[in-house]
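Now for a specimen:

…
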Amino acid sequence: MGRHLKVTLGQYSDKGRKELNQDFHGACLPGESQLNAKGIAVALADGISSSQVSQEAAQSAVTGFLEDYYCTSDAWSVKKSGEHVLTATNSWLHSQTQQSQHRYDRERGYVCTFSGLVIKSTTAHLFHVGDARIYRLRGGELMQLTEDHRVWVSSNQSYLARALGMDRKVEIDYVQAQLAIGDLMVLATDGVYEHTDAAFVQAAITAGPDLDAAAKAIADEALQRGSGDNLTIQLVRIDELPDPEANEVYRQLSELPCPPLMEARAEFEGYQIVRVIKSSARSHIYLAVDNESGERVVIKTPSIDMQANPAALERFLLEEWIARRINSAHVLKPCSQTRQHQSIYIVTEYIEGQTLTQWMIDNPKPELPVVRGILEQIAKGLQAFHRLEMVYQDLKPDNIMIDTTGTVKIIDFGATRVAGIEEIATVVEQINLLGAALYAAPEYFLGELGSARSDLYSLGVIAYQMLSGGFPYGTEVPRARTKSAQKKLAYKSVLNEEREIPAWIDDAIRKAVEPDPFERYEELSEFIYDLHHPNKEFLNKTKPPLIERNPVIFWKGVSFVLMLALVGVSVVRFH
């Protein structure tokens, strides 16, 4: 059996010499499924002493974080999940103060510090605002991993510069730290850490296996040394770190075989194969019928060439994982599984229709409203990926299906990059699958990671192709592998004499396919909007010279003028 993430937790909190304990703490050690996907969460909060309601703020911050973090998408990175939850918590606490009698005195409102720790795979993810602290004890050395958000006016006077609920917006510190077996993570409020040291912490945890007792001993020592504040401390010892095999994907890789090539009428795990839809170096795709329900489905199996490639198999298995987390009418959906797999394959809905590639062949000069409708549906599918912090990366007409009702769906998630998956330690090297070269964003050819704007670029290329049949930079993009080469790429206007296309449509497409990703639209919705409405920014700009708008007409004009000049010279000589 492979190793899994295992920790030992110890916690203690007491009011100390104060009348009320305004600290709050908690932890969540989930079951195996969420342990792999989301990790272990530990948090504490310290209410400010000037407020009579800050203990409520501390409790809300900790319970909200521990509950809501596990409700965020598995596809999100820990950073995005944690910041999303804490931003919402800050807004709620601030609104509570604004609705109370303390709206003009934030130091009496719903304000608290917060320090949270998420341990996922082999990495500690720290979220911090305020003056509690998170340490890592390793080899007897206590290292502070967070920064105090406190401003010192003098040697004995200071004030809290940052806290949850203090302002409408909050800046949350985020830090990653790699873990080793035996590490001890320590979370403590100022009532503890200001009156203890590394030597005593080390002695307390080595005194016995009970970390709860160690936490109490450390807090009691802080009290004995003169602490006048609340006392809260959490200890998390790393007992085991996960092997890659602990992940569900790797269990499937090691336990299930790859299916053989299949032909029509073959029986396969409760399905009857109807025909081969497509075979490639990556996969074999079949139309099949579910023998139980009679439903037509698509079965996708790894290609024979992939079966000895663990990285490629991992990517194949992630496709179903991705599909099950996206809920969009414009993204291919997987079929519910009622039978246990005996081999590695994916079952999805069958879309009766045609690819966008075939559609463009059948409709070489589509009307602009039809083009807009298709692009808008593709954008909605891409937005479903982006909301889950996924980048599709392989948008091309072959990966877009149009069914008999005109509904557009994105298929094939073999190149999709998932932020949450990248945080899981693995011995299998992640493969970077570029999309089709003519649709791939220029930054990929510089070796950079793609972003949502890379998918936007690919959508812009498809828009250009639907309206012109060509590509905005011809075939030059795959050859432009330096920044300087990409700056020389010359956009070819989609406008021509054969199509009545408004100039502002060309401007919108030009912006979507800018070589520099930061020059493109920030959001897909902006691009779609500009395809429907003239952007004033485009209408007010200086009209580009004719040589840029239509080089052919420009050079024809130049040639005509030269011809007239030559004729004029000949006439003069003749006379």
The chain has a mean pLDDT of 89.
